[in-house]
Amino acid sequence: MDLAAIYHRPDSEFAFLYQPDRLRVRLQTASNDVEAVYLVYGDPYILVDGSWQPKTIRMQQGLITDLACFWTIELTIDRRRLAYAFQVIGVDGTSTFYGDQGPGPILPKIDACFRMPYFQEIDRAKVPEWVKQTVWYQVFPERFANGDPTNDPDGTLPWTNEAPQAQDFYGGDLQGVIDHLDHLVALGINGLYLNPIFMAPSNHKYDTRDYRMVDPHFGNDETLRQLITACHQRGIKVMLDAVFNHLGDQSPQWQDVIQNGAASRYADWFHIRDFPVRYQPGRNFEDATDITYDVFATTPHMPKLNTANPEVQAYLLSIARYWIEAFDIDAWRLDVANEVDHHFWKKFRQVCDAAKPDFYILGEIWHSAQSWLSGDEFSAVMNYAYTDAILDYFIHKKIPLHQMVSKLNRQLMLYRDQINQVQFNILDSHDTPRLLTMANDNRRLMRQTMAFMYLQPGVPCLYYGDEYGMTGVDDPANRKCMVWDPVDQDQAMYQFVKQLIGLRHGKQKLLSEGQLEWLIEPTHPDVLKMTRRLGEQQLTAVFNAGQTAVSVASMRTPILSEGVQQQTAATIIEPDGFMIY
């Protein structure tokens, strides 16, 4: 048995309160190395005849990666403290106990066991229940619909299907979103994610000039209130995009720094290495070299805020509270969240929770994010690391099936279960190529990949226009104007997406909380069978990502399928096909 592979950490994703009276425990061992694991546990203060008398329960084998196996158990807690250790039995017949001071031949004394000294409900990671029930729809406001031509910026171009240039404007606004809310309702959408709407010179609005002002080209405060009210009347939650990592260079704070240099009252609001602030322009508007201050990426037009400065903190936290209290928004999406200090985000969470107890905080983090997801900062992150594995297998064909499953399982084991249930799952966005473009216009492959993602833990998000088969490579081509002309819409794709969203809603609790099981058949290395199971409920899906049709035993009539032929004794699933039953 590989003792070095055994791992556990209390008060983490390996031991956490799932509900106030339910503790979930995990242990990691080497893959294919352990026969059984037993949890030995009890209240450390209850002794019988002067000795500790712990209970023993067998743990369940859970998710497996290429390197590790995870063992799990849920305990109902009647007393709010626990000492525990593990007995691990290897496939080679050897046995060891594993406690706070490592492995050993005998059960460790209480002082050498892992401890959960007291279960503090205030420390339990909590997520808004409504998020589990949500299917999000992402809108890039400048490209969704032009509902009010009177607020168009100078040089606004006619609405078109052509790929835009980086600096183009087409007049999309908040009234355009209001005008098309019934489209979202018809699809089954109940969460609206808006890219930034605050005053900024660009079409994307990530270069904020004024956090307290709706961009005049999008409307005004009253337009936003009308939109949020109309959404809430339709059962749609609203999430705004906040850019607290940096300001735009047209903001009054940065303009004061340019004018007054080191004497500016805002000089310490930013990370400035030398005055006067300056840079060498690059080949395009977004890039520069020899910048004397910290920025987002390499663009001199987005100077980075010093969120350790108390004045900056107070300013940004007032913004966070303002839009919740004055406009009743339901969520913040936080741009470049991983480049802002944890100290600030902890204060941010406290402010949001005080303003609205069931508020959803979503961080833009493209990599593993344990330190942000312990319950005192974000509710979830944009789950790029999870969906990248899906894309690498189904779309890009970069990795084999077993490796995709391994990557997905590893990501799930990074976080507490309640966090996994509200992770934000996307296949494309304003920052990536469109899904249909990545699929080389293979619509069946796009539908297969979407179906797989919608069955995963977490909540799905649809990028505007994907329901009509919109295309586009990287920014700015992925930000085309929404196709409202029926002639240009893929109605078959729309009907599929509507069915898929309906399936997600109909099986929501199972898909949010159900156990995930994988089956890969050696004879069909590109056929994946997955099952979601919760109590007596079960949903199974089979995906053929291979190059040839496969025959599987006849199954129940599918709820949703693509490229499937039902025969008397067998079911034929064509390449890029799937069935959910």
Automatic annotation (TrEMBL):
Keywords: Glycosidase, Hydrolase. Residues 138-504 form the Glycosyl hydrolase family 13 catalytic domain. Coiled coil: none annotated. The keyword Endoplasmic reticulum does not apply. It comes from the Bacteria. SUPFAM superfamilies: (Trans)glycosidases, E set domains. It holds the Pfam family Alpha-amylase. This is Alpha-glycosidase.
